[in-house]
Amino acid sequence: MSVLRTFRAVAWSFLGIRRRSGLEEDMQRLNPLHVVAVALVAVALFVGGLIALVNWVA
């Protein structure tokens, strides 16, 4: 459940839409190392998806 909560917090951060109360709750509950790890995986997936899209279009 913690990984899902971490992924959700990182996804909201990517969009830039977050309530202050949600942010404060995440800061208390989430492990910073998990947030960094999930963010790195999410960035890698995003970049990989963009590269795949460009190769598919071109």
Explain what you see:
With 58 residues, the protein is mostly helical. The protein has helices at 2-15, 20-29, 32-57. It has one domain (2-57). The N and C termini lie far apart (39 Å).
Uncertain stretches: none
Largest sheet: none
Main structural class = mainly alpha
* Proportion of helical residues: over 70%
What Rg is obtained from the alpha carbons, in whole angstroms?
A: 14 Å
Shape: elongated
Termini separation comes to 39 Å
What portion of the residues fall into strands of 2 or more residues? Answer: under 5%
What number of structural domains do the residues give? 1
Tally of individual helices: 3
Encode the helix/strand succession as letters: HHH
Mean pLDDT reading: 88
Number of strands: 0
Give the topology.
Elements: H1 2-15, H2 20-29, H3 32-57
Which terms summarize this structure?
58 residues; mainly alpha; 3 helices; 86% helix; elongated
Sum this structure up briefly:
The protein is an all-alpha fold. The chain has helices at residues 2-15, 20-29, 32-57. Helix content is 86%, strand content 0%.
